[in-house]
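Appendix B, example 12.
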Amino acid sequence: MYEHLERYISLVSSVTGADVPLRFTQFATLFVGSLMRNQLLSTQHSFDPTVPRSIPDSHPQKQAVQSLLSLSSAVSTARVVYRFAGIPETIAWLRSVETMRAHTAHQRMSKLLLRLQCFTMLIYYPTEHVWFLGSLGLLPSGVDYDLFSRISCMAWAAYLLLDLWTLYRSRRHQISLYRAKLKKDGESQSERQPEAESTSIDPLPEYLAQQVRNVCDLILASHWSLVTGPLTDTTVGALGLCASLVTLYFKWKSTAV
């Protein structure tokens, strides 16, 4: 019990870590709430197709739907507020990247990709802050603050594209090193031991899960980068929930002693 509590405290001790359970809650409630709303709306019939369908106030599940969607919106706002601490954390991340030693071409490219990811986050956070403050009327009027939101999502999309490439390069490099080791040891690939492979190459399911998470998030980032995105709330909730579960798994795994 105490071990799990310590792991949870370790998980939420950073901005990105604390965002994980909040993100899961946001998209889980959005997915379930929008799914229930769609199901209830499908049972409502209107003789006039121009009149939008709505859930009657007397329906027993209307309050549950509204509560779930309201909770999702409130958690989304809480996540934005909490991310105001993201800039200092990103600067600290960038400083740690700059101290990394890069002796080989692979290491230098990896360092460059990490540096670029830091720069995308240094665009992402400020533009999101400007959008949020502007949407609350705390900044001068007459400015299209939704544009800052779209720029923020574009920066996030750039981060995800870099992460997709970084993960692919990392796995390809692991496989290359492993094959070189087999060749050096005089072993053929058909005679390799599964135990040796698992210690030098990340498990394929975990690699695929991380890439699926990035693809889900990339679809969401692209959707929010448009003035009018094509995705429905249910689709957004499903993609966000899928990515959240993968992130939660890896973040929780990283807290293991």
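The mean pLDDT is 88. DSSP finds nine helices and no strands in the chain.
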